[in-house]
């Protein structure tokens, strides 16, 4: 098992991030959908249990063409769909197992997130994990402006070093030390447990999955910042309406066109 804690510093407030994250999730889902694959939203509804309230989502990720060829080779058709349940009680978000029906308990990605206003990634145990897990945890600071991304993922309009928000005056993030200087600021503390229990390829696949998660978080938060003028000023009600419309769009797009797999074959 790999335990990674990704700390993503963002040039926005914690309250703004709630809207920004939901907007970016909806928009990114549409980018990844088409040609029979993509994201299917089964449930997106309020929940309440004990003293906790939030939004519950249940999604299916149909992305067979994007998994490593060595995994596809041993898995039957249709067995590579991923199922995700998430309980978003913002600013704390817990996601249950991201799992696969074919692989059952042999594969899981479990992650939880805490969003902290005013933080610059300095909290050493924001999610209060056990001493045993702390010994295994790897801390990874994600710098959305300076971390390298692949040429396949790069877009000029999604480069924080070039983007300037007309509505907020934020950006571009050209200062090498921007994380310690920008205002407003907040940090997403994302703790990710990755387990893949297939003998012979466990370590290699877990490392691959960890690298993929890192890439996804980096790309997502680059987009989130560079879409500031799109989400800034939106309300949660606006977001829920957008999510409802996005669900309809996703259902239609899965049956249209082609989706081009990215470089997830490089395992």
Automatic annotation (TrEMBL):
It comes from the Eukaryota. Coiled coil: none annotated. GO terms for cellular component: cell periphery; cytoplasm. Pfam families: IP_trans (PF02121). GO terms for molecular function: phosphatidylcholine binding; phosphatidylcholine transporter activity; phosphatidylinositol binding; phosphatidylinositol transfer activity. Residues 1-248 form the Phosphatidylinositol transfer protein N-terminal domain. InterPro entries: PI_transfer (IPR001666), PI_transfer_N (IPR055261), START-like_dom_sf (IPR023393). This is Phosphatidylinositol transfer protein N-terminal domain-containing protein. It comes from Thamnidium elegans.
